[in-house]
Amino acid sequence: MTLQTTLRVSRFNPEEQRSYWQEYTLDVEPQYTVLDALIKIREYEDGSLGLRCSCRSSICGSCAIRINGHATLACKTKLRSLASGGRHVTVEPLGNLPIIKDLVVDMTSHWNKVMAVKPWLQPQGPEPEHEYIAPNETMLHLAGVMSCIMCGACVGDCTVLQVDPNFLGPAALAKAYRFVGDPRDAAGKERLKALNRYGGIWDCTRCYECVQACPKGVAPMERIMALRDKAIEVGFDNTYGARHTIAFGEILEHAGRLDELRLPIKTFGMFNFIQMLQLLPVGLRALMRGKMPPVFHKPIPKAENVRRIFKKMESKR
Amino acid sequence: MKYAFFPGCVSRGGCPELYPAALEVSKRLGIELEEMVGASCTGAGVLQEKNQKLGDTLNARNFALAEKAGLPIMTICSTCQGVMSQAYKRLQDEGPAYLAEINSVLAEEGLEYKGTSEAKHLLWIIVEDVGIEKLRALVVRPLKGLKVAPFYGCYIVRPTKSLDFEEHPERQTSLETVIDALGAEVVDFPGKTRCCGFPILTINERNSVSMVANHTSDAKSLGADAMVTPCPLCHLNLDGYQPKASAMRHTKIDLPILHLPQLVGLAIGLDPKALGLSRHIIPTTRILSKIAVPA
Ligand code: SF4
Ligand code: SF4
Ligand code: FES
Q1: Which one of A217, B80, B187, B202 is CB 3.0 to 4.6 Å from B8, fit for a cystine?
Q2: Beta sheet of B185-186, edge-to-edge order
Q3: Is B295 contained in some domain?
Q4: How much is the pLDDT for A268?
Q5: What is the DSSP track for A21-83?
Q6: Does ligand 2 lie within 6 Å of residue A220's CB atom?
Q7: Domain closes at, from B90, B120, B150
Q8: Which residues of chain A carry a pLDDT beneath 50?
Q9: A165 and A186 part of one domain
Q10: Could you tell me if B144 and B59 lie in one domain?
Q11: Are B80 and B104 within one domain?
């Protein structure tokens, strides 16, 4: 049974610097992936369609595009698995990267960011005679990140990269975790120091876009959270981000709930007048509309139970 | 249709208008609520950054409290919902030893989580339990001519594997379904499932406010009169920081942001004051006059 599908493809012609939508309607086999359909278009209907692919089996990472608004691998996405049974599909190049032609984007910034985290082992001491040995258990948690195929799907959907190209982004940060978490690597503190800066681990909004987009289950955001935890652990606890996380935990432990007045005060520091003044207009506007959080914050009833759980679970770590 | 009500921190803190609106709307929709006593914050994903098991224990404790009352939980915040859904999934999937370890901590206050009680957002309850037909029937003031952009909030749309989207595909378009049932016109825009920027507000305000500026001006340029969200954290940012977003873009964006129960409340005939519509940073008067309701 063949399936008729209409692909709405976002095109970009570099010579004329012109972007436009083009629709192709074609008959495909039921097991076709989006990539199969695109290749069929290029082979039989429109040889000018630019796309990138190689392995066709989710290994090389070259076919990442946006399908129905979300980044993924074209070769891993069956038409029939999509909404509308694959009859109408929107196809665009990855976001957050400059378009070279049609579905082909320039990955240079992505590679540069990966290089910026020094994605190689930096061991210390004399080189062992044979290979570096690491116990199995200490490497297992890296299996997930090691399956990254550098396709850039996560980068294409990252919320922060949309507004700030300086952000290292999910793929590079996941790669950073791969080495910070490696028991053979000795540059952990140095690495964390670099990742602690603007554009690093604290700039992520925790939006889960990268977790959702990644075709390999790398879950970059979760690696970023683990890096945050490690950064605080080795003593980088004085950024606004770290202070926010620490303050949040402290308030919750004490009261069982959030205190929206104390949180920014603890994050910025009581005597950080400049940051406090910047909060003032927003606070005043809120006050005028009767929207201010309560000044005297009551803990939840029996908050001692929450304190007990904190104590127990923190000591177990 | 009875639920253990988990209002979350923000509906009684930074968005105090949400709490009474949610209570009143639930009542009108026939959702009976028993507010949870002694439930803690979910950890909002922030606590989980540092210690996921601690977060799971706090959520298991909340689930156990609801279970004791024999009720499922109702949330009114995308973030509370998402964090609870994730915790629920982990408590199911991590195996009996994980649950047993957590239960041993809960046992000290006489609680046990058996894995039955689950959390549902009011948005899902409207679509799945109240039913869209019943909602339609309750509309006395159809929001005709009002163009409304949906804004979900990250945690109620991602990661899909903890949100049961396979079993409940209707959840993915629930907000549009509700807007439509109330008689308003849906303004579809790509930002609807994106991040509002709230989590980095105190860390990188410029980036956070840029996100507010993008979403509100995109929706506005597609003709939206208002935006509706099931997430009070999104509301805090999209409403509270919209003046800064406007200043950043040198233009007056002026897009009222409504909480889900406020939009429903308007259509089923509740008084705008009781819904707290005068308590927003971006005034809502223009949309009220558009649907001919005195402010
Ligand atoms: S979770 Fe962080 S890194 Fe991942 S897409 Fe969102 S902002 Fe980007
Ligand atoms: S983390 Fe996943 S989405 Fe990102 S580059 Fe690696 S494989 Fe692709
Ligand atoms: S073509 Fe290689 S990953 Fe898709």
Answers
A1: B80
A2: B185-186, B147-150, B226-229, B257-259
A3: no
A4: 63
A5: EEEEEEEE-TT-BHHHHHHHIIIII-TT-----S-SSSSS---EEEETTEEEEGGG-BGGGSG
A6: yes
A7: B120
A8: none
A9: yes
A10: no
A11: yes
- Counting the structural domains of chain A, the total is 3
Same domain, A112 and A208: yes
CA-proximal residue: ligand 3, atom 1 (nearest): A56
Q: Does residue A80 share a domain with residue A117? A: no
Residues A70 and A100 in one domain: yes
Tell me, using a 6 A CB cutoff, whether residue A105 lines ligand 2: no
Residue A316 has what pLDDT?
76
Residues of A whose CB is below 8 A from B64: none
**Comparing C-alpha atoms, which of B208, B138, B222, B211 is closest to residue B178?**
B138
Residues A264 and A228 in one domain: no
Q: Where are the alpha helices (DSSP H) in chain A?
A: 34-40, 108-116, 136-140, 143-146, 153-157, 159-163, 170-180, 188-195, 209-213, 220-233, 240-255, 262-268, 273-288, 303-315
Q: Domain check: are B154 and B255 in the same one?
A: yes
Q: Which of B275, B270, B276, B295 is nearest to B285 (CA)?
A: B295
User: What is the total residue count of chain B?
Assistant: 295
Whether A214 and A272 map to the same domain: the answer is no
Same structural domain, B143 and B257? yes
Among B86, B90, B204, most A C-beta atoms within 10 A, so best to mutate, is: B204
Displacement of CA A232 from its chain's centroid (Å): 20
Give the pLDDT confidence score for residue A53 in this predicted structure: 97
Distance from Cα B96 to the centre of ligand 3, integer Å: 38
Q: Are A306 and B40 a contacting pair at CB < 8 A?
A: yes
> Looking at the domain assignment, is residue A244 inside a domain?
no
Question: Which pLDDT score, from 0 to 100, does residue A296 have?
Answer: 56
Contact B241, B208 (CB under 8 A): yes
A198 — contact with chain B (CB < 8 Å)?
yes
Asked if A305's CB is within 8 angstroms of B200's CB, the reply is no
**Is position A260 within any domain?**
yes
CB contact under 8 Å between B199 and A260, yes or no, is no
Q: Is any ligand 1 atom within 6 A of the Cβ of residue A219? A: no
Interface of A with B in 22-41 (CB under 8 A): none
Instruction: Give me the residues of A, 272-311, that contact B with CB < 8 A.
Output: 278, 281-282, 285-286, 289-291, 293-294, 300-303, 305-306, 308-310
CA B177, B179, B182, B183 torsion-angle sign = negative
Cα A77 to ligand 3 centre (Å) = 11
For the record, the structure tokens of B105 come out as 């901590």
Domain range for residue B28?
A: 2-120
Enumerate the residues of chain A whose CB falls inside 8 A of the CB of residue B17.
291
B112: CATH: 1.20.1050.140
- Same domain? A71 vs A119: no
What domain range is A67 assigned to?
3-105
Whether residue B46 is predicted with pLDDT greater than 80 in this model: the reply is yes
Instruction: Quote the minimal CA–CA distance from B199 to chain A in Å.
Output: 5
State the pTM of this model.
Answer: 0.92
Q: Could you tell me the pLDDT band of residue B79, with boundaries at 50, 70 and 90?
A: very high
